[in-house]
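A.,

Following up on our hallway conversation. Structure tokens first:
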């Protein structure tokens, strides 16, 4: 009876802890994990982590929640403006925002369990939870490889790189394996783990550390060089520290420095909490945002060097650091050679045609035509009645449609669509004027024909989004949601 009560209490504690960790927090930092680019067309791809005060990932963001500005150099005080007269900097929205879970990234994940007798050697309960946590973490890797290392003062058991399913091989370990481990080896274990990840060619590298983390507190050795080494290699670090008893503040320094600087740090008091926090880390790994940014109007290259060499990302109201753009970005060729070759070829063709016509006119004899053979003049055309020449469109045959803004000062107002073109924008001359600073003066058009409705981008800066995808044109059907600037609309129609 007592055992079942303890298990029920532990389960309730784990559920409450998970619910608390899952609650949304205000983002405090945006960590740019990776920047990549293509030249044709100029497209930037980023992996970013907007995180809160406790390091947890801010979930539920969409493409329109992010803003990207550009800098000519990382040290510039002001972001780039497309034209000198512009008051606001050149700003673009991502054309798409997904997560790693939706679009997997090739990953190398290493689980490092740095254990002593006090951590793993006294009972099988803690080791069992460590095994459960390791399997949970391996499940976050859809594409890539996973490794697990058990380390005392020296390596005890090393599971080399393999598929996520291979982690099940750690089940053979028992607490007896760690019974004789009395000296910690955290710094040696981290050095070995970082070396293994630095040697991996995977684009995403993750280290998850489970340890009591007390080595080095009283000595001269500091963890700062290892933190900088991991940062330079682009390694994300998640630190789960196990201290079953209340410990002094210095005992948390090493593991907290690892997690706070490079990923996430959590302090656990029970073995079951290791399993709960492992699920949190998995969600954070899978929830990393993938952004795709199109900015074809930007001056990517002038002469032999790129003009834009840094970017800054905002998510909601939080600014990230200015990040250096790695690589070379050139504006795609517009096919200028065609404007030289094609007109020249056309002139040559016209010259040949004129010359051929003149030669043929000289060669053909002129034969007089008798007057009697001439055809009589054609009779004058019979006038066609007006009702036969005019196509009359009955308004009852045209479909009826209207749009309703869902956000902003005009939320809930109904705008009926005209037959033909209905313009949407910020200018008062627009058929549907919208008060939204992120919309262009002539942002989009809705074309109404007897066959239906079509949304068309009219050359806007921030684009048109239908079902969270940027489009140049899209068919509108009843209850279609689309976004212009920061204003979301719903389209309604009656056939």
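Then the amino acids I'd put at each of the 495 positions:
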């Amino acid at each position: 009876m007592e055992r079942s009560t303890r298990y029920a209490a532990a389960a309730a504690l784990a559920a409450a802890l998970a619910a608390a960790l899952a609650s949304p927090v205000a983002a405090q930092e945006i960590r740019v994990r990776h920047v990549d680019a293509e030249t044709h067309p100029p497209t930037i791809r980023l992996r970013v982590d907007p995180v809160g005060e406790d390091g947890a990932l801010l979930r539920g963001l969409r493409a329109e929640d992010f803003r990207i500005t550009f800098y000519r150099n990382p040290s510039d005080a002001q972001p780039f403006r497309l034209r000198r007269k512009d008051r606001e900097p050149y700003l673009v929205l991502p054309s798409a925002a997904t997560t790693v879970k939706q679009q997997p990234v090739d990953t190398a994940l290493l689980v490092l369990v740095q254990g002593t007798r006090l951590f793993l050697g006294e009972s099988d309960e803690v080791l069992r939870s460590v095994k459960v946590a390791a399997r949970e973490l391996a499940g976050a890797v859809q594409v890539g490889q996973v490794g697990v290392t058990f380390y005392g003062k020296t390596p005890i058991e090393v599971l080399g790189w393999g598929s996520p399913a291979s982690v099940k091989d750690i089940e053979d370990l028992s607490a007896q394996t760690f019974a004789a481990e009395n000296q910690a080896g955290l710094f040696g274990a981290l050095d070995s783990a970082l070396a293994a990840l630095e040697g991996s060619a995977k684009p995403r590298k993750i280290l998850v550390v489970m340890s009591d983390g007390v080595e080095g507190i009283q000595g001269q050795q500091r963890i700062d060089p290892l933190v900088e080494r991991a940062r330079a290699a682009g390694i994300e670090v998640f630190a789960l520290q196990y201290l079953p008893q209340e410990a002094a503040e210095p005992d948390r320094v090493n593991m907290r420095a690892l997690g706070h600087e490079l990923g996430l740090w959590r302090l656990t008091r029970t073995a079951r909490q290791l399993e709960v926090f492992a699920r949190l880390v998995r969600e954070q790994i899978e929830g990393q945002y993938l952004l795709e940014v199109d900015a074809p109007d930007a001056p990517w290259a002038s002469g032999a060097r790129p003009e834009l060499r840094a970017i800054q990302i905002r998510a909601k109201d939080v600014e990230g650091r200015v990040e250096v753009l790695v690589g070379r970005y050139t504006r795609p060729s517009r096919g200028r050679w065609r404007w030289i070759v094609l007109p020249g070829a056309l002139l040559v063709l016209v010259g040949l045609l004129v010359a051929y016509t003149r030669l043929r006119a000289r060669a053909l004899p002129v034969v007089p035509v008798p007057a009697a053979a001439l055809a009589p003049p054609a009779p004058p055309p019979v006038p066609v009645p007006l009702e036969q020449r005019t196509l009359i469109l009955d308004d009852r045959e045209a479909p009826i449609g209207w749009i309703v803004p869902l956000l902003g000062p005009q939320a809930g107002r109904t705008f009926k669509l005209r037959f033909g073109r209905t313009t949407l924008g910020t200018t008062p001359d627009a058929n549907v004027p919208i008060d939204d600073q992120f919309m262009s003066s002539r942002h989009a058009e809705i074309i109404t024909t007897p066959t239906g409705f079509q949304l068309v981008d009219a050359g806007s800066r921030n684009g048109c989004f239908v079902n969270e995808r940027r489009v140049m044109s899209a068919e509108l059907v009843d209850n279609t949601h689309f976004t212009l600037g920061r204003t979301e609309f719903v389209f309604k129609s009656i056939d």
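The longest helix spans residues 336-363. Curious whether your intuition agrees with the design.

B.
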